[in-house]
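Issue: copy button drops trailing tokens. Both records pasted manually instead:
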Amino acid sequence: MRVVLGSQWVESSEEWLIPTLICDSLTLLSGEPKTGKTALACHIIRALVCGQQILNCQPIARDFRIGIMGFDSKWRREIQNRIPELMESVYFVDPINYKDSNEWQLLFDEVKRLGINYFVIDHLYGLGAGADLDRQHHFQEVQRPIQELMNVTGAGILLIAHAPKGSDGRVAHSMASEGFARWLLRLRGSSKTRTLTALGNNGETVVRKVTLTPSAVSIIESAKSASESVLSDADGQLPARARFILATCPIGIRHNAKAIGKWLSEQDVGISDPESGRTAVNNLIKGRLLQRVGKKGEITAGPKLVL
């Protein structure tokens, strides 16, 4: 067991692998059957491996190796048919039930040996076969190997789950499944047009209207996020906040959104706590009112900020 003083702990990973779409820990993608969850997952894999934009979001630069564990019939064939050009960066993993602890330990070793740094599990029902997912303590048993996989290997995970018919895309069964995830993607719609809602505790809710086919995913129109709504308001709250940070924030912490967020929460500017402050800074970066110079460089004025 390690006990580390907070001031000595240094974050070693990025919060987002694809901003507002995929975080660096567990992202839960849910939707009714046949809404295109696997197709969207394949587009996400392509964006990560190729470093290309998806839904106007740019993935971080990294050499991604993707592990995929599927539970439906012929899932390997489906993946190979959807993204054949990526097979040198994709590893098919034999499905493992959540109870098979020995198999999971072997998988952890293989993931580390092969350098797999992102993992897709398709789907929760297969992983948790035999468990009563309506009972929280059963779900906790199902999620344990997922948590260990992240802890042991450092890999981020996209977990796909079914939603009930006629729903808003929210995952079926216990709410614990959504509580376990850091970021949620809810997919709904019955035609080529889908609604993709992204929400969680490390960013503001974003709703996108998208066209989704096996060959492409693209935005039709993007509903405003909370930050975009404020940005368009006449009072100019977000630009004023960006200017306040640039004018008064200590130079020594301007490379760290978390530190700036903590500082903001102490300035009597309507930011209630450090986490809200960090979210506010990230929203300014997403809105291009602020920008980071280099991967971990100083946060400075963005291209949309008029000084």
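Record 2 (pasted manually too):
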Amino acid sequence: MKKIVVLSGAGVSADSGVSTFRDAGGLWEGHDVMEVASPEGFARNPELVLEFYNQRRRQLFEVSPNEGHLALAELETFFEVDVVTQNVDDLHERAGSSKVLHLHGELLKVRSTGPRQTVYSWKKDLTMEDRCEEGHPLRPHIVWFGEDVPLLPKAAWLTQQADILIVVGTSLQVYPAAGLIHYKKPEAPLYLIDPNPALRAGELKRLEIIAERSAVGLPILADLLIHRASGPVGPRP
């Protein structure tokens, strides 16, 4: 069974109604990014940071996976699929993807600020009074600006193993995640799904571009790959 690795970004979640960081009017509008997504911002005003992520967490319960998420989950019938995502929501998992690596953390988890940095599942608001078993305050389980990305080596290793690489919903402008495409095997095809791609066909070996948003382009690509793997399939309803 061939291995597909998917590098997904905010554009995948945007089709479910989750506002994106870099779009005009995006979810960080009105907030200096360093005030709500850095260790220094958390130290200065932890109440603001907690409420910011509480709002993001509440929003998760108002949105659902879209056709792009569902198409990726469907690929698991025919391929081994690993999703490496920059997104902190759980929409990939809710759509049925079984192997999801969250590079930048997860909204539905928090962790201790103590030495052990114990991680907990968390679905309610996080307050200043919440503590770990050792009495340390809790913080969002999010990789903030200026912090290491601890899962990056695993993501690079997965990308190296891919027989097929899919990049979707990401501008390929945010590092270090954008650098993952350079770990691709030369013979592995790369599919880029983006309505306004930053790359052009021919810039990378075996690059194919589907100039559509995620919820449209992923079902198109999934049908193509499944057709090649198993023969013709009927049209989507």
